[in-house]
Amino acid sequence: MYYVYVLKNIKTQELYYGYTNNLEQRIVEHNRKQPNELIYYETYKAESDARNRERRLKQYAQALTALKSRLKESLK
Question: Helices (H), strands (E): how many in the chain?
Fold first, then answer.
Protein backbone atom coordinates (compact mmCIF):
# COMPACT_ATOMS: atom_id res chain seq x y z
CA MET A 1 0.00 0.00 0.00
CA TYR A 2 1.02 3.60 -0.60
CA TYR A 3 0.06 6.61 1.45
CA VAL A 4 -0.31 10.31 0.76
CA TYR A 5 0.01 12.13 4.05
CA VAL A 6 -0.18 15.58 5.58
CA LEU A 7 1.99 16.53 8.53
CA LYS A 8 1.71 19.70 10.55
CA ASN A 9 4.89 21.03 12.12
CA ILE A 10 4.15 21.50 15.82
CA LYS A 11 6.39 24.56 16.19
CA THR A 12 5.79 26.45 12.95
CA GLN A 13 2.31 25.11 12.07
CA GLU A 14 3.53 24.59 8.49
CA LEU A 15 2.08 21.72 6.48
CA TYR A 16 4.10 19.08 4.64
CA TYR A 17 2.65 16.78 1.98
CA GLY A 18 4.30 13.57 0.89
CA TYR A 19 3.81 9.96 -0.16
CA THR A 20 5.40 6.74 1.04
CA ASN A 21 4.91 3.00 1.21
CA ASN A 22 5.73 2.91 4.95
CA LEU A 23 3.81 5.63 6.76
CA GLU A 24 4.98 4.84 10.30
CA GLN A 25 8.66 4.83 9.32
CA ARG A 26 8.29 8.04 7.32
CA ILE A 27 6.72 9.87 10.27
CA VAL A 28 9.58 8.73 12.50
CA GLU A 29 12.07 10.08 9.93
CA HIS A 30 10.29 13.45 9.79
CA ASN A 31 10.15 13.68 13.58
CA ARG A 32 13.92 13.19 13.87
CA LYS A 33 14.33 16.65 12.34
CA GLN A 34 11.38 18.50 13.90
CA PRO A 35 8.26 17.45 15.79
CA ASN A 36 5.31 16.88 13.46
CA GLU A 37 1.76 15.70 13.84
CA LEU A 38 0.06 13.46 11.30
CA ILE A 39 -3.25 15.14 10.53
CA TYR A 40 -4.40 13.25 7.42
CA TYR A 41 -3.58 10.38 5.11
CA GLU A 42 -5.03 8.58 2.10
CA THR A 43 -4.30 4.99 1.06
CA TYR A 44 -3.63 3.82 -2.50
CA LYS A 45 -2.90 0.41 -3.95
CA ALA A 46 -0.78 1.76 -6.81
CA GLU A 47 2.30 3.91 -6.28
CA SER A 48 1.50 5.97 -9.37
CA ASP A 49 -1.87 6.97 -7.90
CA ALA A 50 -0.24 8.13 -4.66
CA ARG A 51 2.50 9.99 -6.52
CA ASN A 52 -0.05 11.74 -8.75
CA ARG A 53 -2.19 12.76 -5.76
CA GLU A 54 0.84 14.20 -3.97
CA ARG A 55 1.80 16.10 -7.11
CA ARG A 56 -1.72 17.57 -7.40
CA LEU A 57 -1.63 18.73 -3.79
CA LYS A 58 1.74 20.40 -4.28
CA GLN A 59 1.09 21.95 -7.70
CA TYR A 60 -2.58 22.85 -7.82
CA ALA A 61 -4.01 25.37 -5.39
CA GLN A 62 -7.55 24.12 -5.99
CA ALA A 63 -6.71 20.58 -4.81
CA LEU A 64 -4.97 21.91 -1.71
CA THR A 65 -7.79 24.34 -0.93
CA ALA A 66 -10.36 21.54 -1.16
CA LEU A 67 -8.33 19.34 1.19
CA LYS A 68 -7.82 22.17 3.68
CA SER A 69 -11.54 22.87 3.77
CA ARG A 70 -12.16 19.21 4.70
CA LEU A 71 -9.50 19.40 7.43
CA LYS A 72 -10.64 22.70 8.90
CA GLU A 73 -10.81 21.49 12.53
CA SER A 74 -7.62 19.43 12.26
CA LEU A 75 -5.66 22.45 11.09
CA LYS A 76 -6.49 24.51 14.20
Answer: 3, 3
